[in-house]
Structures are given as C-alpha cells and as structure tokens.
Amino acid sequence: MLAYLALDQIAQPDCERGVLAERLWPDATADRSRASLRTALWRIRQVDPALVYGTGGRVRLGADVTVDVHEFRGNAERMLSAQSDCPRDRAALLARTSELLPGWDETWLLLAREQLRQMRLHALETDARELAARGRYHEAIEAMLAVVAEEPLRESAQTALIEAHLCEGNVVEARRQLALFADLLWTELSIRPSPELFGRVGMAAPPPPAPASRSVDRQVALGERRVLPHMGARRRM
C-alpha cells in the first residue's frame, strides 16, 4: 500500500479508498477488498500513525514521509531541463542501476517502473550532450558508457557516445564504437544502425552480409559470449 500511494502521489496528492482497494486486491470482491484495506490501514497505523492519513473517502501518505522515487524524479527533471550543471543529480542517476521494486510484478507497478527507467536514460543522454558541448568529454563518455552498459541496443545512447568521441577529436574511437554497435545490432536483431549514424563518422552504411545457413546462424547465436570493450554488454559469438 505504501508503495502504491508513493507512486500515485506523483500525479495526485491522495487516492480514493475504493480505487486503492481495487488496485491492491483486484481479484477480490468490492466488499472484501475494502475490508482488506481497512485491515492494512490499521496495521500500518500500529507501526507508525504518521505514515498514512485518511480523511473521508480518501487516503494519502503522511506529510512528513519522504519518498526516494520523488527525489529521483527531481534529479532527472533537473538534468532534463539542461539549465545548469548538476553533478549531484548525475551521481545519483549513475548510482541508481536497479529497477524500481525488483521482484514485484503488480500490474500497477509496471508502467511506473518503465517510466522511471526511461526518464533516467533520457536524463543521462541529455546530460552527456550538455557535458560534451561544454568540452567535458570524459564525463560525457562516462555517462553514456553507463547507459549503453544497461541498454546496449539503444541507438540514441550509442549516438551520444559516438558524438562525444567525435567532439573530443577521436574519430577512430567513434568508428570503433559504431562498428561494435553495428555488429551487436546485426547479431541480435538482424538490422543496421541508421545511415545518418554512419554518416556522422564519415562512413557509408555497409550492405547486409550474405545470409549464412540456418544451422550455422543458430550455432553462432547460442555459442560463446564475450564482453565487448567500451560497450558494457555481451555478444553471442
């Protein structure tokens, strides 16, 4: 219940009792879910009366309760605004690599989990581009390596990393990163990076390789895995 109220508070200050009961006990009857809600509220108040506050037909977290997800969103929103350098926000987002409430599979949690994940990745990408524009290439590359380690097939992150190498004057490193990404993308999805990305490093997009036999492809796809340098990802060989 506390987790649901904390996430629901992002959009509204409190939650209607009937809605809360339905979300937390979706398979129960209306009467049963409301009874379960009353029991849960009673138990929480036995631990700390200030955790949850109910008035009329609505429930909300106590005014003094702090939520790390709200702080995380604040970190990301400041970085997305790109109005100022945010080293503390950057450090907070780089440090947060685990997903929201790992191991939970409640339906109401899935969308919030993905929203926070995407917000973190977009914030780091935006921050990396701002750092590169200020000539702080090492920090930009560090931020993007963290993103591609988590999402190696994310072309926008790979693009930001390649652009940081180019801004630093390391064309060879940029081409090397693109070659690694192109190889991984083809191995995993049988597609190529966009022609625009090849153009940024002064390369023409290569034609697709000749198809190999299905048995060989399957063997390669399920064979030995090795770490790709500067990718933080693994590729099937």
UniProtKB/TrEMBL annotation:
Matching SUPFAM superfamilies: TPR-like
UniProt-recorded name of the protein: SARP family transcripitonal regulator
Lineage top rank: taxon: Bacteria
InterPro entries: AfsR-DnrI-RedD_regulator, BTAD, TPR-like_helical_dom_sf
Every Bacterial transcriptional activator domain range: 67-202
One matching Pfam family: BTAD
Entries under SMART domains matching the protein: BTAD
